[in-house]
Amino acid sequence: MTTAFRNPLPVPVLGFCAYSGTGKTTLLLKLIPELNRRGLKLAVVKHAHHDFDVDIPGKDSYELRKAGARQMLVASHVRWALMTEDARDSDPELPHLLNQIEADKVDIVLVEGFKKLSLPKIELHRAAHGKPFIHTQDPDILAVACCDDTQLPSDLPRLDINNVAEIADFVQQYIANWCPATPSLPLAPACGCEADMSKTLSVRQGMDAILAKVVPVSETDLAPLDELDGRVLACDAISPVDVPQQTNSAMDGFAFRFADPMPDALNIVGASFAGHGFADTLKPGEAVRIMTGAPLPAGADTVQPRELADDRGDTVSLQGKLEVGQHVRLAGEDITKGAVALGAGERIDAAATGLLASLGFDKVQVKRRPRVAVFSTGDEVSAPGEPLAPSCIYDSNRFTIKNMAKRLGCEVIDLGIIEDSEASLMAALEQGASCADVVISSGGVSVGDADYIKTALEKLGQIGFWRINMRPGRPLAFGEINRALFFGLPGNPVAVMVSFLQFVQPALRKLAGENQYQPRFIPAITDEVLRSRIGRTEFFRGIYHLGDDGQLHVKTTGAQGSGMLSSMVKGNCLIVLAEPDEQLAIGSRVYIQPFADLL
Ligand code: AMP
Ligand code: MG
């Protein structure tokens, strides 16, 4: 039996396990230099006996620690060591230890010991020692390193324990194939769509159930370049030309034919400007003045920048290092004629519009915009611009939702504020479903709310009322009304935005025909202790910045009330605390979703 383990680092962790005396350290002593030779940077974590010490009695650092310093950091200009007194009854926690490693400076962490943890491992086995295999009891073992003549009781990959290069190949392959587990998103059960409404769903389960219902729009429009922003390309854009069309110069300077050695001076026989090339073929020993972007004359293959050329009027002598083909952009080196320049399903932004223009397209087939109908519910909800009655609040949700939907390229139909009555809600839902692909409401889905939206929805369609194990944004209604999808978002303004970003956004992206619709996560380091509950996904509003250490650091915007829209304005990202996390110490790795990607 192994104990659960989650790698908190953005680099792989690989364990080595064996009975003592098998030669773990001996192997690592050979493996590490071999991996270093292959350009890999390593960290090692080793489990030791309780009474180990790395310091020596009599040294200042030892005495200062013994005097009572809980942490002692000793540093020189070549190395530093941090010793921490952390006496505990149980084994040290590997995720905590891993968080102490400078993960941006290594490609992999090798772990010796901790064999009871459910982390990927290589088993070392020597039949001569007469010990049993470990992998028969441990499903996390990926391969067994043993002697040539050992019989394995399984079909696990086998490695020769005496062949360090082979083991290094395995480690290298492991690093190449490794990808970080996405936070908070363990795989949903295979069934997906008909989620059981009676139970609480994880964020991943909710998202999978929603995405399973989304069918991308099939209709397309032919749209001119100026109207492409935020549209999704419907068919591959195949390049009708080579880009660049002609081989040309990347520098202002001189073009010539490379020879080794080069003559001391070349005769300048003309010039090539952008749009006006040099008509003749260059002969060896000749050069032309050339401008950036100007076509390379026939016969020339190399350019020397002006700064490294001694221009004497009729002749030029070249200085500095010369390499054949330098400073030359080859025809088609960016995009070759006939290649897919932009694939179907790409969302078109400024760069993509420019690329399409550069290929000569003045219009392209794009997916029709999804249509989204939006309304707010609640008798206390008032339209901005009107006087605010006592105990009422202004409607902000409709405006955040409309704005986010528009940024995703949707056409928006605003159905206004709907009073808490079954008849009005039914009318709004029917109207929305008749003219839109997606209907989004806010409010009225929490437990204990006036039942109108629930009864209205039950009468009109197949709607599930879900409890998502997340904060903020626990209640969520989702289903179908006729052919439209329906999202009933919570009422609290931050919960609305967070649930929109997690659930509605991927759905609208998929509906719009985008290939990439799964949310993206970026690792950062928390500068603040973050607390959640195991099993719940917590979304904090955060502010990230680039630290002096070159890594992204993040802290929260402060108070995190789910009604505090100002936290969404102050913040530039969501900090995502995954389901298994309960408390993350300062310096731990977290994942963030930058708003730049989302809003
Ligand atoms: P409900 O789930 O309808 O009880 O709403 C939860 C909270 O969100 C209540 O405090 C509502 O007043 C608030 N709320 C509901 N709809 C809106 C809205 N459109 N804009 C701002 N706040 C809202
Ligand atoms: Mg309400």
Automatic annotation (TrEMBL):
GO molecular function ontology, one term from the record: metal ion binding
One cellular component (GO) term of this entry: cytosol
Keywords: Magnesium, Metal-binding, Molybdenum, Molybdenum cofactor biosynthesis, Transferase
Reaction(s) this enzyme catalyzes, per UniProt: adenylyl-molybdopterin + molybdate = Mo-molybdopterin + AMP + H(+)
GO biological process: Mo-molybdopterin cofactor biosynthetic process
Main EC class the enzyme belongs to: transferase
Top-level taxon of origin: Bacteria
Gene3D superfamilies: MoaB/Mog-like domain, MoeA, C-terminal, domain IV, Molybdopterin biosynthesis moea protein, domain 2, Molybdopterin biosynthesis moea protein, domain 3, P-loop containing nucleotide triphosphate hydrolases
Metal-binding keyword on record: yes
Pathway: Cofactor biosynthesis; molybdopterin biosynthesis
Residue span(s) of domain MoaB/Mog: 373-510
UniProt-listed Enzyme Commission number(s): 2.10.1.1
Family: Belongs to the MoeA family.
Biological role: Catalyzes the insertion of molybdate into adenylated molybdopterin with the concomitant release of AMP.
Protein name: Molybdopterin molybdenumtransferase
